[in-house]
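Exam revision sheet. Question 4 asks you to relate a sequence to its structure. Input first:
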Amino acid sequence: MSAERRHGVAVVTGASRGIGEAIAERLASKGMSVACVATSAANAEGVARRLADEHGVATLAVGMSVQDQDSVNDAMAHIENVLGPISVLVNNAGIAGVVSFLDMPVESFDKIIAVNLRGVFLCAQAAARRMVASGTRGAIVNIGSVTGMNGLPKRIGYGASKAAVHHMTKVMALDLVEHGIRVNCIAPGYIKTDLIRELIDAGNLDESLLKRRIPMGELGGPADVASAVDWISSPEARYITGETLLVDGGWVAYGYV
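Answer key, structure tokens:
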């Protein structure tokens, strides 16, 4: 991955912890100004302050409900007013649900779709419109999942939302290419985050089985996803758009149980 310094403003949703925090950290370490977005500004304040102190870049903690159009538009306007034109958007915010198809309440399904799919659409559209208006040749990176490629039990809402994000990435890329905006997707496998730890502790995932199933024999780390986001949003990947890059230790490639 590139060690070159970068410029511009990156917006990272779901940046208060886990993969989102690692992505914000990686982009700040390269010299980018970073808007750390969470459901409330208070939730992202600690990360934003730490990145500013450690990397000497401008940061901003932003509260946003990704599924609410007015909230998204207000937040994007605030980010540009404070930090400048947006050049990179990382759609990382998401929620999971581990419930069998027969038992899933429609309210839970709707909430997952609203955050994971509608949220990506709204944030990408708002950021892209601002990139076009400012003449910025930007990059949008959506965070998908291996569950959007393989059928996993009890992931009806989550898997459907991520599969749709993968496809939406292709359409966004085609519609925005004339404006010099690239759109790609990173699809992580099982990554060591608080969410995965909670699922393991609740008995919904078996860590030892996961490690045996992953060809590389271990769960990935948030930094593995962050480095992929850094590269695919950088000028080094200037000829790549509409793609979904797996960061899964070989999970999808492995055809045996």
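Marking note for examiners. The first strand starts at residue 9 and ends at 13.
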